[in-house]
Amino acid sequence: MTDASLEQIARARLGRVATGVPFGAAVLLLAVSAAAQDGPPRTANNVVYAELLGPAPPYSIDYERVWQSTSARLGFSYFATSEATYVAFPITISYLGIGSLKNMLELGFGGTIIYMGGVVSDLGNTTCGDLGGCLGSFALAPVGNVADQKGRPGFTGLGTVIVGYRFQPPGGGFFLKAGISPLLTGNQLWFPWPYVGLGATF
């Protein structure tokens, strides 16, 4: 057998190994995830919670429905003073298949529909405008720079991804989630942008 033939055989074997390693790792990850989720099936598929920051700053009240390893969230946020109004509707979808039925990694994406009206031009700067003082200015900074500077009502939106920890007992009870959810506003990325949510699953 020539050196060229040996080299071709070696390359072929290396190619099979290189292809097999990521495939094997993916199969192993799925097997570990499936094994971790063995046990009593989830009976509490509904979640109601309050979330600080996250996709709809400065806070939101949210409802989620879980289908096996997937959850969908629809939320609502409202903030107003005598001179300004802010309303937001976060909508996200998450994958919950990594971990156990009680403790899991949450990976998701989505967006937020935002309505803003009134005097909102000070949001996001160091003067701490009328909508909530300094805390409101900080929390709403990602949307302040797209508001109508003349105070006219209008709609805008944010994009987001979700990476975090989720505590959700399969039979119901206390619910907790925390992590980061970077926000995309136009051509600006707000990262890291944290969130924490507390509520109940039933």
What does this structure look like?
This protein has 2 domains: 1-36; 46-201, Porin (Beta Barrel). An 8-stranded antiparallel β-barrel has the order 1-2-3-4-5-6-7-10. It is of the alpha+beta class and 202 residues long. Helix content is 22%, strand content 48%. It starts with a helix and ends with a strand.
Summarize the structure.
This protein is an alpha+beta fold. The protein has 2 domains: 1-36; 46-201, Porin (Beta Barrel), CATH 2.40.160.20. The chain has helices spanning 3-36, 133-139, 141-144, and strands spanning 46-53, 59-67, 70-80, 84-99, 103-118, 154-167, 173-180, 183-185, 188-190, 194-201.
What is the general shape? elongated
Uncertain runs are 17-22, 24-36, 120-135, 145-149
- Which topology of the largest domain does CATH recognise? Porin
Major beta sheet summary:
8 strands, antiparallel, barrel
Tally of contiguous helical segments = 3
Q: What is the topological layout?
A:
Blueprint (H helix, E strand, L loop, with lengths): L2 H34 L9 E8 L5 E9 L2 E11 L3 E16 L3 E16 L14 H7 L1 H4 L9 E14 L5 E8 L2 E3 L2 E3 L3 E8 L1
Antiparallel strand pairs: 1-2, 1-10, 2-3, 3-4, 4-5, 5-6, 6-7, 6-8, 7-10, 8-9
